[in-house]
Amino acid sequence: QAQLVESGGGLVQPGGSLRLSCAASGFTFSSYNMRWYRQAPGKEREFVAFISVTGAGTKYADSVKGRFTISRDNGKNMVYLQMNSLKPEDTGVYYCNANTGRSVWGQGTQVTVSS
Question: Dihedral sign, CA of 48, 19, 25, 72?
Fold first, then answer.
């Protein structure tokens, strides 16, 4: 059964950094593109970043471009999101996602950016 487990969230001051991790299991991780999404309180879930199966292709939401970096390690079945220069508007629950024929979501990890 396909499963994703996010970790690495927490409370950070504006301008700080966090690195989120997502551990995949139950499917052939190296065969699927991966994405990060986030959901702020009272708002809809929104796309944050995309990475292709080899890691050669990436895309970002305009709001995080230049501050966030998505990466993956196919040998470890892991996808990461390095978040720098964090802003209060980056606060939310962050989810990783894989589309294996059905959309697979993790439970999410909370990121709070506040002084």
Answer: positive
